């Protein structure tokens, strides 16, 4: 009376959709985490703010506070803009993983992102100006995770497409 | 509890009392020590999660989540070690939440014990109430560094006493067929 | 399973198997007592803590999840509520020994341990029979979960659907409010929250799927954490019917009406006259169907079934010096023996998840020494 769908394609589809959702969520969370991280690092270097705002010692506290707040807000917006592609990629991966969307566009952008993320390491830019070794380790861990998540999204995304096609063909037959 | 574990629990308890004394005498040194310990704990938790993924969770439906959690916590641990300060207010919020939660569990357990007419309910009720009061005070004195020092010392000493007392309790390990 | 099946259904099964109504009540009482005999109750009665057959929610929440604590939890839950099906099971693929040990604790019906449980109950007290019936019934309800805190075995996914006879299915989205009751009519259910720590209490048994295994009417499909993305269907009406028939069969064997107890064998003939009625009761879409089972049992025996009263035998136990001959004394003895047997079998399979077990001569003096040692305010056993 009740039947399970445990044929090879269905099982594989479930597995890869699940991985797609997980990796998509990881992309979003790690992107948000990188924004938070940079914000905290910037907050540590308050002296830079004074330099950029070019404030005199006699400036009222209220003005200083508003100045800091605006600069901080602009910094966060800039960082968020920088991670917007990964946020959108993650969101698309989650939607495909939940079976709510069928698309290949996000896979193309994922492949592009993978290439872009390798470049700073290929040209050694990441290892320049490393004043803090521990924060460099943090950056590397984050980058490796995002890279791994992208690879997983690409692989699982392709597998999902293949499985969906096979299942559709079987249903047609 | 094996002999080795008893010895370990007693030593850890004594170490915690020592840390409480150091913290009380020199709060700045103690606070830096707390941040270092916090970052080490995060790093260890992150590594443990990664190990857990490799040995167990990779076979679980949705196991990737454990992998990403481990990486995030590991990253957080290194980041905590790398930055120069963590505002005391975050430590206070964490402590306050932990105390309130622990107190709530104790009180619910006391209610359960009361329903069964067990004599243990009074003790649990008192401990639960104390934990909740400490937790609320953490939020009231959110920005007071002195109070933070007091709370951390109190927590360390309380946990040390519980550990040492537990080490001397009778525990049965062998189950006979 | 809940009081409706453990108490009232067991009563009916015992009567059909040939026990008198009085004996059936004693068996049923013992069967449900497994769900209430906690360390807190035992402390109040001054009884050996080692006789605990369950742990209250609050006990679990404050329980240490160190090695000793986990062994205590596993001993209780694997022995009485999630009896392992196959302690020699092999995982389909590569896995670590640690994973395999937990995988082997997965509960299921018709395993060797069930047979041992029933055979041990033969020639024993009514209390031991009641405990055996509880254990047997739970192997049907709680299959696919393990009686040890384990994320990798007991976790569930959002892929969870209730199935209906007309072929339709509805996704179940759990709420995590521990105070709110389930609403079967609305399809609203609660379950424990995801906890990523492997040994967290929330990952014990079927907590991650809420009370669905305990509802006889419910048919659902989901992805068990250990099944590599393959669906399983949990057909509770079918399983509960089989559990009832197997209980009758087991009770007939224990009474001596059958020579052997074989696995995957059910008392079809004896239950046949009542099959439709039993099936109707099981499929009643309610959280608890005590009234329905009670009505069936009373119609069956023409006698009133007294409601379960946890205090019924307490004074008898507390006021006497000869505790071993009281109702509760016999229950505690039976629970210690059963727990001992299961722990020993798990240990012999190469796993220390339920603790260490040694075998020695069961002299009275040795048993007394153990019981006295363990009685001293110790809730770590």
Condensed summary:
The complex is a heterotrimer of chains A (173), B (177) and C (381). With 173 residues, chain A is an all-alpha fold.
Walk me through this protein's architecture.
The complex is a heterotrimer of chains A (173), B (177) and C (381). Chain A has 5 helices and no strands. Chain A has 173 residues and is mainly α. Chain A has a domain at 8-34 and 86-172. Chain A is elongated. The model of chain A has no long low-confidence stretch (mean pLDDT 83). Chain B has 177 residues and is mainly α. Chain C has one domain (3-149, 237-375). Helices cover 46% and strands 5% of the residues of chain C. Chain C contains 16 helices and 5 strands. Chain C has helices at residues 3-17, 21-33, 39-45, 57-61, 67-80, 97-103, 112-121, 126-141, 151-154, 236-255, 268-271, 275-282, 290-301, 314-318, 327-348, 364-375; strands at residues 160-163, 169-171, 219-222, 232-235, 356-358. A 4-stranded antiparallel beta sheet of chain C has the order 2-1-3-4. The longest helix of chain C has 22 residues, at 327-348. Chain C is globular, with a radius of gyration of 20 Å. The interface between A and C is medium-sized, with 11 and 14 residues. β1 (174-176) of chain B pairs parallel with β5 (356-358) of chain C.
């Amino acid at each position: 009376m009740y039947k399970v769908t445990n044929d090879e394609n269905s099982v594989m589809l479930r597995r890869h959709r699940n991985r797609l959702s997980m990796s998509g969520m990881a992309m979003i969370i790690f992107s948000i985490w990188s924004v938070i991280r940079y914000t905290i690092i910037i907050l540590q270097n308050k002296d830079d703010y004074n330099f950029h705002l070019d404030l005199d010692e006699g400036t009222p506290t209220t003005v200083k506070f508003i100045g800091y707040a605006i600069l901080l807000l602009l910094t966060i917006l800039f960082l968020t803009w920088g991670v917007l592609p990964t946020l959108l990629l993650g969101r698309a991966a989650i939607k495909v993983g939940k079976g709510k969307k069928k698309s290949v566009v996000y896979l193309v952008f994922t492949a592009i992102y993978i290439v872009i993320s390798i470049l700073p390491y290929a040209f050694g830019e990441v290892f320049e100006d490393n004043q803090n070794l521990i924060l460099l380790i943090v950056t590397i861990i984050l980058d490796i995770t995002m890279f791994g998540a992208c690879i997983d999204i690409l692989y699982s995304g392709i597998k999902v497409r293949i499985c969906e096609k096979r299942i559709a063909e079987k249903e047609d037959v | 509890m094996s002999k080795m574990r008893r010895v370990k629990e007693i030593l850890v308890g004594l170490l915690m009392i020592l840390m409480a004394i150091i913290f009380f005498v020199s709060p700045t040194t103690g606070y830096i020590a707390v941040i270092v310990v916090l970052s080490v704990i995060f790093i260890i938790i992150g590594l443990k999660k990664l190990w857990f993924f490799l040995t167990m969770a990779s076979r679980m439906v949705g196991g990737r989540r454990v992998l990403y959690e481990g990486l995030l916590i590991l990253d957080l641990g290194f980041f905590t070690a790398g930055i120069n300060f963590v505002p005391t207010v975050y430590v206070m919020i964490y402590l306050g939440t932990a105390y309130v939660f622990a107190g709530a569990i104790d009180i619910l357990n006391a209610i359960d014990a009361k329903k069964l007419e067990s004599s243990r309910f009074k003790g649990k009720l008192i401990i639960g109430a104390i934990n909740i009061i400490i937790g609320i005070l953490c939020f009231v004195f959110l920005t007071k560094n002195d109070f933070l020092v007091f709370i951390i010392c109190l927590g360390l000493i309380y946990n040390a006493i519980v550990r040492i007392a537990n080490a001397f309790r009778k525990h049965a390990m062998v189950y006979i067929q | 399973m809940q009081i409706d099946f453990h108490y009232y259904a067991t009563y009916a099964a015992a009567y059909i198997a040939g026990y008198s109504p009085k004996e059936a009540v004693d068996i049923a009482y013992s069967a449900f007592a497994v769900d209430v005999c906690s360390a807190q109750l035992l402390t109040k009665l001054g009884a050996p803590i080692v006789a605990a057959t369950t742990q209250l929610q609050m006990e679990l929440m404050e329980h240490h999840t160190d090695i000793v604590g986990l062994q205590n939890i596993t001993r209780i839950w694997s022995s009485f509520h999630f009896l392992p099906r196959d302690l020699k099971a092999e995982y389909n693929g590569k896995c670590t020994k640690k994973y395999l040990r937990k995988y082997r604790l997965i509960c299921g019906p018709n395993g060797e341990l069930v047979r041992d449980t029933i055979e041990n109950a033969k020639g024993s007290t009514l209390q031991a029979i009641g405990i055996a019936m509880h254990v047997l019934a739970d192997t049907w309800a709680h299959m696919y979960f393990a009686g040890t805190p384990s994320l990798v075995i007991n976790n569930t996914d959002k892929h969870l659907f209730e199935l209906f006879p007309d072929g339709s299915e509805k996704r179940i989205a759990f709420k995590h409010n521990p105070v709110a009751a389930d609403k079967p009519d609305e399809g609203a259910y609660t379950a424990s929250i995801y906890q990523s720590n492997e040994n967290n209490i929330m990952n014990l048994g079927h907590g991650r799927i809420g009370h669905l295994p305990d509802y006889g009417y419910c048919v659902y499909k989901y992805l068990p954490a250990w099944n590599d993305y393959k669906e399983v269907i949990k057909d509770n009406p079918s399983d509960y019917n089989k559990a009832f028939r197997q209980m009758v069969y087991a009770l007939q064997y224990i009474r001596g009406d059958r020579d052997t107890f074989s696995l995957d064998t059910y008392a079809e003939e004896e239950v046949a006259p009542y099959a439709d009625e039993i099936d109707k009761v099981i499929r009643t879409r309610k959280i608890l169907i005590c009234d329905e089972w009670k009505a069936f049992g009373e119609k069956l025996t023409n006698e009133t079934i007294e409601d379960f009263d946890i205090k019924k035998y307490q004074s008898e136990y507390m006021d006497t010096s000869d505790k071993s001959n009281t109702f509760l004394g016999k229950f505690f003895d039976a629970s210690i023996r059963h727990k001992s047997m299961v722990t020993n079998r798990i240990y012999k399979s190469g796993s220390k998840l339920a603790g260490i077990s040694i075998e020695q001569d069961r002299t009275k003096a040795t048993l007394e020494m153990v019981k006295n040692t363990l009685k001293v305010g110790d809730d770590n056993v």
